[in-house]
Amino acid sequence: MNSRMPHALTIDAEDWSAVMCAYAGREIPASPQFGSTIHHLLDLLDEHQVRATFFVVAKHAADAPEPIRAIVACGHELASHGWAHAKAKTFAAAAYREDLHRNVQTLQDLTGQRIFGHRAPFFSVTPADTKGAEAAGALEAAADEGLEYDSSIATLLWHRLGYSIPDQPFVFKLPSGATLVEFPIPARKVGPLTVRLIGGRGIRLAPASVCLGHLRDLEQAGLPAMMYVHSYEIARDRLAAGVPRSIGRHRLAIAAAACGFEVGRGRMVRLVRRMLADHRWAPAHDVIARLRDESRLLTFEWPRPA
Ligand SMILES: [Zn+2]
């Protein structure tokens, strides 16, 4: 690989409290922790002179537009991450299209920046069954919305269902004939487990040497990694601090859930800093453009299960 090829750095920007309250059936606006954490992240990226892609939950952006405009002002890429952080499979096909359109429109209206990419919450674009119709519908919707790429596929789930799709960015030729670049999240076997190592829980919980080893191996193979970090994982305050008292009896359950999300956050920040310092990073859209310029984006037909 050309040694200057960067890895993709992506931030899933969502307010932890608002997401958890929504799961408990209570809709609340994004907490002040959402904005303060985004600004903390912007400072961290500036310190390392790194630009990233922020996949933003559009409802939280509408609640707190100032930090979202700051993301754009600092030169980062803005991308879509669902209106209210619901899994792709919770929508009927038409509702998924409406949700995606609302996300993209909201983010573009708030900032004036064109949106090129989308990531479904929880990497939840999966074949669901061996016919793959649900995933095809979600990706066709992204192509019809005028997006250039999607990053909603965890290849592990596809491989388990017998689909042989690549672990690296590729052009997906969809059943309608439309095309969309997919930048998937690869996984790797560690002992008896298959885990995603360069993101989220993988960075929080796996040994640093294993995560760094995966990154090094990708570089040696000439492949760009896709790193993802949730904004709340970098928050300076404890997550439960953002949950309002007004939500009543759900508060205790959400505070208890926060304990699990707190595990490994300190070491994650140290490891992310090390990765930012030692490797080259860019927004996902830039990495895709670079691969396209170098004619390294291969096209794959919509796969049939093996
Ligand atoms: Zn998310």
Describe the structure.
- The chain is of the alpha/beta class and 306 residues long.
- It has a single domain, classed as TIM Barrel, CATH 3.20.20.370.
- It is 43% helix and 14% strand.
- It has helices at 16-23, 32-47, 58-63, 65-73, 93-111, 133-144, 155-160, 200-205, 208-220, 250-262, 265-278, 284-293, and strands spanning 7-13, 53-56, 77-80, 117-118, 149-150, 170-173, 179-182, 188-190, 193-195, 226-230, 281-282, 299-301.
- The strands form 3 sheets. Strands 1, 2, 3, 10 and 11 form a 5-stranded parallel sheet that branches. It has a 5-stranded mixed sheet with strand order 4-5-7-6-12, sandwiched between helices.
- Strand 4 (117-118), helix 6 (133-144) and strand 5 (149-150) form a beta-alpha-beta unit.
- Helix 2 (32-47) runs parallel beside helix 4 (65-73) and helix 5 (93-111) packs parallel to helix 6 (133-144).
- The longest helix is centred in the middle third of the chain and has 19 residues, at 93-111.
- The two termini are 31 Å apart.
